[in-house]
Amino acid sequence: MDHRPDPTIPEARTFRHFCRGQVLHLIALAVLWIVAEALAAPALDRTDRFWFRLGLGVTVLHQLVVWLAFRAQLGWGLLHRWWGDRAMGVWSLIFLPLLIARPVLTLICGLSDLGSLQMPDTLALVLGVILLVPAAYTLWSVRRWFGIDRAMGADHFEPRYRAMPLVRRGAFRWSENAMYTFGFLALWSIALFTRSHVALVLALFQHAAIWAHYRGTEQPDMDLIYGRR
Fold this sequence. Notes:
Elements: H1 15-19, H2 22-40, H3 46-76, H4 78-83, H5 87-112, H6 121-146, H7 148-151, H8 178-183, H9 185-193, H10 197-225
Helix pairs in contact: 2-10, 3-5, 3-10, 5-9, 5-10, 6-9, 9-10
């Protein structure tokens, strides 16, 4: 017999909530893709274009996978139905490679487009370090105070996470959503360290896209999970 607490929320078990926020999310991703292509075009060649579009595609894939998994889990406990107590572990094997691919592809774009950014080396280096400091502090804060599982959406999997208080330590003293506000600045640092126009556009795309994900996917779920109706 499965004694694990039911992670589902009845109000989420509807097609309406499953699709809630996704029109905004998908339109934002489409518009951002078009804008990113236009901004990157002056510095793109055939090789750069492949890595750049792969970076765009992985970003979109990651966010759509999170939407599908979160909504299916919150409404119907689908991942637990498939994998039982291993659901969170299996989810990490899906989530983390897609997350790691985002800075890796930004770096590859930067190296394939090295030096195309019209900015003095010293200025690019200084700006990159400035942005890296809050990003690194945020990643440390996530590990120290927030927890990796919680960052991957553990409150969709285990009800005990829903009773935990909001984190107000480390970078979370500066912003309730420090991961998106400051953590993604690491992508900008990669672009600046490589002085890459293409990587900078990819960083901009990813940072804007994650906020579209927050508004379209995470915020509606939080409203249900934490009663902010």
